[in-house]
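Changelog excerpt

This revision adds worked examples to the README so contributors can see how folded entries look when concatenated. The first example is reproduced verbatim below.
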Amino acid sequence: MPETAGGSLSGFRIGVTSDRRSADLIDALERRGAEVLHAPVLKIAPIAEDAELVRETRELIAARPDYLLVTTAYGMRRWVESADAHGQGEALTEVLENASIYVRGPKARGAVRAAGFTDDGISEDERTSTLVDSVLETGVDGCTVAIQMHGHADLDDIARLEAAGATVITVSPYRWVVPEGSAEKVEKLIDAVVSGGLDVVTFTAAPAVDALWSAAHERGRYWELVQAFQTNVVAATVGPVTAQPLQDVGIDPLVPERFRMGAMIRQIVEYLSDRGTQRCTTAFGELSIRGSQVTLGKESVELGPSQLALFRAIADAEGAVLSRADLIEILPEGQGDHALDMAVSRLRQSLPNAKLVATVIKRGYRLNV
């Protein structure tokens, strides 16, 4: 990776939804001590299987667009590769040499120049909407504008161009398909998010968010999943495009200032080091809860999702009594008083000091401060 992000993620559990470059991301997270759950929700279809791209390229060559908007470096490289592989390379090159090319950020600019073309403008904030603003300023009435898509349709931006009098054609150098054998992994990811078994889930493409929503809908767990992201689990994204489908349902994801994987990792480290670590003073010394890791003095233990949820609630109260009814609500649905007593007993056995959780007779439990 071009960027590095120092800092420890020991004790934290992170879900990774990407397929492409997932090995780089997982390696970076695990080197920092994180436990990673990998559940690729989408992958990019091989070029050899993408007859639709060949058709779109043929139509674009025939249309001879006045403008080309390049949104991703990977998409530009893959498009040129596909055109060469299918005998369309020379014709595409001739058409693009006569088009005014605008790019969404420095990486897209680099890919355009590597392909032998020059660009006439760049979206400095790497947003498609800003890229479209630049083209609209030149006047597109009566012009044909081609857009290299990045996995899903920017319908609002297409509508803006059409409203300004442009004819819009699109080409999608990569298409998303569901990886074989991914259903069980995705189900485990959904379970882990809903149960609080993950601290962060990473997203590197907006279609991956939509695919996860679709998988949750199929299992009747969509609203559970959304609520978990709104309350307990952090969504981390590589940029505003990926963040949008999360924001659309009231989730506030992490969005780095620089739209790169390394910047996303750095933001995850900073966020979890700051807000992901809970510290308090107890009767037995300083206590910290860092992800799934509970540390008292020099002794650290790992708690499972249910135990962690229970202990976080007790620790959050900072010595105040939590009623039995309040704590029962934290347990899996349908469990009562006996289940709570058993859960507290197991929690005490797992903690560095069983006396951290004090019983308040006939009322509930509290942290021993």
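The second example, added in the same revision:
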Amino acid sequence: MSVEIKEVKSKKELKQFVKFNIELYKDCPYHVPGIIEEEMVTLSRDKNPAFELCETIYFLALRDNRIVGRIAGIINRKSNEIWKQNHARFGFVDFIDDKEVADALFAAVENWAKSKGMNAVHGPMGFTDLDQEGMLVEGFDQLATMATIYNYPYYPVHLERLGYVKDQDWHEFKIYIPEKTPEKHERIAEIVKAKHGLKVMKFTRTKDIMPYVQQIFDTLNKAYTPLYGFVPLTQKQIDYYVKMYIPMLRLDLVTLIIREADDAVIGFGITLPSLSEAMKKAKGSLFPFGFIHLLKALKTKPKVVDLYLIGVLPEYQNKGVNALIFNDLIPIYRSLGVEYGESNPELETNSAVQAQWDYFKREHHKTRRAFIKELK
């Protein structure tokens, strides 16, 4: 049977779009499903403030009235303005291992992009840098994290066959927690605190961290500006992410670095217990029992933590602030019995970030890629 491409137009079709990922990977031990309700919000024009900056289209591929693939086309106008390019993005892409299906999905996005005046398509990327991005090209036998995409090995094979080439790679590491904080970290931490007038701030109640939340996102915007495809978050997007993520924080695993002179946030480390196994048990739904698995994972002593977000103001980068962050977190990890942390994606070209792991046992276990194709 031939493949039919159908544009998603109704809420019912959008839910089918979201659920196809879970259905395709239901027997895969390495895939971590998202939460259906949250992904519906992310993809809804009336709920996600990213749509103030983005134009998008969603396609389903059907064969014999059965869904066999999905893909989103996204044009981030602000990104194109900042990076001085005319690119569309593809994202939220999944498909069975079938040449005809892959061809039809990417042709749909490419034709849409050309109709909008774009001259290239790259991805997989989302609306913002906080969405999942990068197609897995190494590490198919490793469990995904909450923040990353898992895909079957045949995905990049089809991309390359269709003329997509490497645009950027991210590396991911297992960072094994040492028996004690490296002496160099301890030494640097004390020097940095004294030289720059910094202090480490911890919290035990969510209401106490709230006065610093805006500054955390402002620091993130400044720290991440040079990174591939990054677009600074608008105030509406910051408010959106505050509601989404702040309730999930495990405060003992959050470290702020504050400048004593003016109480300004100049760096932060936000880590979370790994939620991968809990989300697999939830199977895409918070109710009736999915939230129980997530709450348990957030509260128990974790064997694995996700190094979710780390940011330092540009003027303080390469001055030892990261050592100050981990000088605080490593003893906490040890007390909880954490075995290793998942770095999550780091740009292969970001040598400064990867250099922070030089004093730890580490394992490069995953690589993911942004592909690009010039349109003719």
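Reviewer comment on example two: The chain has a mean pLDDT of 95. The longest strand covers residues 362-374.
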